[in-house]
Design goal:
The protein is α/β, with parallel strands linked by helices. The protein is 33% helix and 19% strand. Strands 8-7-6-9-11-10 form a 6-stranded mixed sheet, with helices on one face. The protein has a 5-stranded parallel sheet with strand order 2-1-12-13-14.
Length: 291
């Protein structure tokens, strides 16, 4: 599953990046450090702890809600702000300071809802609005209940979601078990909205996600790296498994995709780790940061 050796990971100065160059490790949660068990394995925890013992700071960048991601942040002992909602919400759990919150404009959220509620789509989609780190839904569908159980979040069913649009949503998500529906949704809405209007992605094959156009994990990692820590991209290693991780994999000096990542995501990474159920994140950390 390997794409490139350490020697081929070059910085902008055309010099090989070594473990000594990396000062920040940023990891995704689902499909990266957490698999089907929805927990961290001992090998992953030990590898992260070993990297921290070498002075490397570790952060999380996830599509999850802040509240849902917090237990992972605490379990790895991160001292940095947590980047949730693809980086739309960056908050420091130590002092509760919100470093960044970039929501979706109310009118755009209303337009998306109108689109999702077309007769041919309404019964196929479960729509989620995330407002003030709460999850609002039209109704409790089976897909929403599965999502809520894994996330540890209690959804608030409100019927017509327009009722909660007095506030701007941090993220809009549409779920469907039919991946063809999600792919068609993504393609159609990417033709309707430019990247300057909305950031559209999939975090797993059944999740369509929309956020503020200035939001993605790449800009979140850049904020942590350059504005918070005064480092450069060549000082960063990132690990992710899906299309919402692409920007942070491209930004980092070392970008690692998981073996369970889609082929297109693996193609842009500099190295491909074993899959999440084989503790691929631990393998990557050992290879690049602990050897």
């Amino acid at each position: 599953m390997q794409k490139a050796s350490t020697a081929r990971l070059a910085s902008t100065a055309n010099q090989a990046i070594t473990s000594e160059d990396i000062k920040l490790l940023v990891v995704d949660i689902d499909g990266t450090i957490s698999g089907q068990s929805n927990t961290l394995s001992e090998p992953v925890k030990q590898a992260i702890a070993a990297a921290q013992a070498r002075g490397i700071k570790v952060a999380i960048a996830t599509g999850r809600m802040y509240r849902s991601a917090l237990r992972f942040h605490q379990e790895i002992g991160s001292v940095l702000p947590l980047a949730a909602y693809q980086g739309a919400w960056i908050q420091d759990p130590a002092n509760q300071k919100i470093h960044r919150h970039l929501p979706v404009a109310r009118e755009v959220a209303r337009q998306l809802l109108d689109y999702f509620e077309q007769p041919q789509l309404r019964s196929l989609l479960s729509v989620h609005f995330y407002i003030n780190d709460q999850l609002y839904v039209r109704e409790l569908t089976r897909e929403t209940q599965i999502y809520a159980q894994r996330s540890g979040i209690k959804p608030i069913a409100v019927g017509d979601l327009r009722q909660v649009l007095n506030n701007e949503p941090t993220k809009v998500l549409a779920l469907s078990d039919d991946t063809d529906v999600i792919n068609e949704l993504l393609g159609n809405l990417r033709r309707q909205y430019t990247p300057a209007e909305l950031y559209l992605t999939t975090s797993v094959a059944t999740f369509f996600e929309a956020t503020n156009p200035f939001v993605n994990k790449g800009t979140a990692v850049r904020y942590l790296t350059e504005e918070l820590l005064g480092l450069q991209s060549t000082n960063v290693m990132t690990i992710g498994d899906n299309f919402n991780d692409v920007e942070m994999l491209e930004y980092a000096g070392i970008g690692v995709a998981m073996g369970n990542a889609p082929t297109a995501v693996q193609a842009i990474a500099q190295w491909v780790a074993p899959n999440v159920e084989e503790d691929g994140a631990a393998t990557a950390i050992k290879k690049f940061l602990l050897s």
